[in-house]
Amino acid sequence: MKNISYIILFSLVALFSCKKDNYEAPASRLSGRVIFQNQPVGVRSDGVQLELWQRGFSLFTKIPVFVAQDGTFSATLFDGDYKLVRLRGNGPWIDNTDSISVKVSGNTQVDVPVVPHFNLNNVSFNKSGTTITATFTVQQVTAASGLERVNLYLGTTMIVDNTRQDASAEKVAADIVIGQPGTISVTVPAALASRSFMFARVAVKTNGVGEALFSAPHRIEFK
Amino acid sequence: MKNIKIYIGLITFMSVFSACKKDFLEREPQSIVVEDQVYGDPKLIEGVLANLYNRIPTDASLTNRWPEHTAYDDAVWSGSGNAGDEYRNNIISYPVDRWSLWDYGFIRDVNLGIEGVQKSTKLTTQQKDQFSAEFRFLRAYDYFEMVKRMGGVPLVTSPLVYDYSGDATSLQLPRSKEVDVYDFIASELDAIASTVGNNGSTSRANKYTVLALKCRAMLYAGSLAKYNNLMASPITLPGGEVGIPAQRAPDFYNKALDAAKQVIAGPYSLYKTNSSNLGENFYEALTKKTGNPELILIQDFLQSKGFKHGFSYDNIARSLREDNLASSAIAPTLNLVEKYEYLDGTDGTLKTRTPDNSDYIYYTNTQDVFANKDARLYGTVIYPGTSFRNLPVNIQAGVALWNGSSYQIIEGDLGARYTDGKLLTGLDGPQRSALDLSNTGFYLRKFIDNTPLASTRTRGTDIAWIRFRLGEIYLNAAEAAFELGQTASALTYINTLRERAGFGANSLNTLTIDRLRNERRVELAFEDHRVWDLARWRIADKVWNGSTSSPDAMLYALYPYRVVRPGDAARNDKYIFIKQVAPRFKAPRFYQIGNYYSSISQNVLNNNPKIIRNPFH
């Protein structure tokens, strides 16, 4: 009898004293958009990141927040005060090292304004035969920046950029008139010509900046 | 009972008196070697040096970081898939901290060594100078490894000692300018060249090793000064921590060329012992340690003393393995193979299709497609139809069955027979998704030991890792001369190297930078040069642009098939070759401009507010 009561006592201790994790997981969601003139800025998927920093704890290291290709981002965090930093030399916009104070309390929205080097306006696509032509206007936003090239990318999924694409065409800066409508064409690869649709995006790249600014992906119906 | 008490009392009494000596707390420790002992004994100092030589950082070598050979474009990872190594076939983009190196543990050990040697009372002046010089060589080497990854780093030349005052600002040094680090390396190496001694050694630094390091470092500095400033938007920091002024380029190239000329005029010569088989000759030049006049500095191993490694175990061709489990991890790519030119000087692209692309070209033997290629191809890569350790490899992906209008590809198990009784798939593959089997149709020969049982785990191999050899010095000299406009002498250096590879005398009479770069790629493949060369030429982001349609960013395989086409004697049982993206390779290589200078760890930034970040991250 005595033995049994010990066993019960030990089991109770074993069951209740220990939890695998004594912290609640973070539950607040910070989300937002990277915007220019109140429009989201399109980028390469998985390429551009923002940084979140929080002071006051012994571990001081950044929380990288990647920007999705449509210019949105999100992170799940603990409530608290954070600094949102536009990482230098990373996105297709001019460096601005001023941090943005963000108070996360429950689900929080924040927009991150940026000034791109170049912007793309009036982007449209049309298909004739096996050729897809994009019409676009490059707008110089930052006077000091040098235009490198404009690319047209075709892909089979909605995630289309310079690394995930099935066909591309390029126009170097010398062939582009800034502020005037320009066109760029690409031939659909023979292997993909029988598909019923593809996605296309136009990107403008600045000299000395790793990432390009993209237009929104556009679905082109083939049939 | 009574007696026992007396005995115990007696023993206690005796031991108290006998064990105790006056200097009980001041004895020489028996289990550790103290500083004065180390720096009073040349043998122990050599032990300290051996430890440091072994810790010289590399990106890829034969030991702990050997799988990194497959992280670029010379090879595909073809080993086991479950050990966390497969990711090298699927690197979406290189992380910005991939090459990050903040090796101040090494620098501190060197600085303590220099201080210890200088303070020592038991060494002669000559010994002090010699050991100090060797420590300074290692420090310069480590600074070179850091500056090529990080740009300018703090130059610490004496041990930093904390005084426990609560204020560490005196220890917080800012980053030096990138150009100053290269100048520091040059001046250090100049200062020690005459005192370093060790004449004739290949495992310790001597005068020529010092010059070889200087040659490489100055070449890097020269090309950074030139090519960084040719970028549309050069990568710089306002304080010069990153970015070398363009006007320094000729100066650096001149220093590189001078150092190279001195090494070439030294006691070394290209290995040409096996003149009957130039391919084997090149292989021996990389693997033989005795009677090899080409070696300048190696990381040596010695099997008989148990100092060995498993590079051959991991990378031996599949059917030749002598142990179970691993083999074939580093599978060279078709990209590399096609960079080896034909001996008549034409482009090395393999001829697998007729010129009008209407049909395959049919070869009688699998090796015929590689006929008349640069002998260095044989010395670097095991390709279909060749042998290793005098045993033939058996590389055949399957059969191509003619169905009247096109070929149907049939592949099977290793060593399987087709219904006509002849071979279907070779014992060495390639297969599309098998582990520990070549995925590209090629195996590595360079640095693989052909001694019997060297590819077992129990015996292991003691093939040396080559840090510097004369072949590289010739290429450095050629590049520096070419950049200085001395094309004639650049051609002499290049042609000397090409002659050893089977090209005739004076095989080139014009030179372009692309040709020179290609020569560097084929001569120095798998010797930890490729990624650094592309970076210093500032073309890595263009060659590895992350695009699936780029022939350089994607890695290719060559699959040989036996033709089954009864009734067509000109084609039946002949071999055709199909080029394709290596099936296990998933993501194109993507090197971004943020990779040119690696990120500095947040720990370092937090501890020292004077350190500024590198551009782009």
UniProtKB/TrEMBL annotation, chain A:
Domain DUF3823: 28-114, 119-217
Annotated protein name in UniProt: DUF3823 domain-containing protein
InterPro entries from the UniProt entry: DUF3823_C, DUF3823_N
Entry's transmembrane regions: none
Pfam families given in the database record: DUF3823, DUF3823_C
TrEMBL record, chain B:
Transmembrane segment boundaries: none
PROSITE patterns: PROKAR_LIPOPROTEIN
One annotated Gene Ontology cellular component of this protein: cell outer membrane
Pfam families: SusD-like_3, SusD_RagB
Name this polypeptide is given: RagB/SusD family nutrient uptake outer membrane protein
Protein family per UniProt: Belongs to the SusD family.
InterPro entries documented for this protein: SusD-like_N, SusD_RagB_dom, TPR-like_helical_dom_sf
Domain RagB/SusD: 293-616
Keywords: Cell outer membrane, Membrane, Signal
Species the sequence originates in: Pedobacter petrophilus
Domain of life of the organism encoding this protein: Bacteria
Domain SusD-like N-terminal: 23-216
Gene3D superfamilies reported for this sequence: 1.25.40.390
Cellular localisation: Cell outer membrane
Repeat as UniProt keyword: no
